[in-house]
Amino acid sequence: MCTLPPTTPADRELITAKFDAQLQSRKAPIAESLPIHNTAIAKWAAVASGLILVAGLACLQIAKWIDPAVKFAEDSPTTASMLLFSGSVAFIVSLAMILVAVIVLCCGAWCETHLREIKNGIYYARWTCSAEEWRAYIDNETADLQGLPFYSAMSASVVGLSAGLLSVLVWPLDTPTSTVYLAMVGVLLVFLAAGWTLGTIIKGLLHKSLDARRATPEAPIIGLTGFYFNRQFHAYRMPGRCLNKLTFRRKGQLYLFEFQFKQQIKNGYCYIDVRIPIPVGKLAEAKRVYKMIKKTAGVEA
Predicted confidence band at 3 (pLDDT cuts at 50, 70, 90)? Predict the structure, then answer.
């Protein structure tokens, strides 16, 4: 009977280096297209900008019809001055939407350069789940949407409460009446209802999107600088955003990579989670990819 020699640390390092080299080796080029959402998002932002601009111009025109000499009035605002103010705000928002469209297109062009590398076969791995694994992944993503209306309502109520407190500071009253308190409660309830409604609408849209994806399993592609999944390229590092944490976990019979991105916003940072499924037959490869991404992207476990 032939016995194998014991594995030494040097042998393990050699095997690890061999697998790492295999992961980083050039794969077969990807023939199919890898579309991304950026162009569609930019188009919607441009359409929204145009509609807002039209509404703003309409407000300005109506204000001129009401009062040809209309001006901004702080002490005693009139209908014409309020329309003038609304038109000015609409013009600023329209410019902001155009800026968003330009930024989205620039990000899309930046992502396309990295997608070209993937299409040329430079990536770590590409996984295709079975139909059962894919359904389990979609069910998991759908379950995470259940609390969206509640969180949206709570966020909106905080905004409404802040707006009410701010109005008291801006327009202080010597002796607030019960009518004022009832008005503040009414504003808070309006914000609460608006937040719940918005959260419910977003939940319905995301639910519909997940149902549309349920029939056909998608194949995530893990690249050297980011991964492609659900018609989006998520870079490990890009201006204003970076990969903060990567988790390899099991949830029931489902295995997942959980990517947490740190996104810079106006007053600090927000965190965005993206999960991709891992086929059971690719767990060993996934563990090597996990270590490789941690090493190259410098993220937490």
Answer: very low
Residues 239, 271 within the same domain: yes
In a domain, 22, yes or no: no
Grouping H, G, I as helix, E, B as strand and the rest as coil, residue 258 is strand
- Per the structure, the count of domains in the chain is 3
Higher per-residue confidence, 222 vs 59: 222
Using only C-alpha atoms, the chain has a radius of gyration, in whole angstroms, of 27
Neighbours of 178 (CB within 10 A): 7
Bridge-based pairing of strands 221-222 and 237-238 is: unpaired
Q: Quote the pTM value.
A: 0.66
Judge whether 196 lies within some domain.
yes
Element at 151 (helix H, strand E): helix 148-170
pLDDT of 5 higher than 50: no
Half-sphere exposure of 209 (CA within 13 A, CB side): 10
- 216, 233, 248 — which closes off a domain? 216
Domain that holds residue 286: 123-130+219-301
Pair 131, 217: CB distance under 8 Å: yes
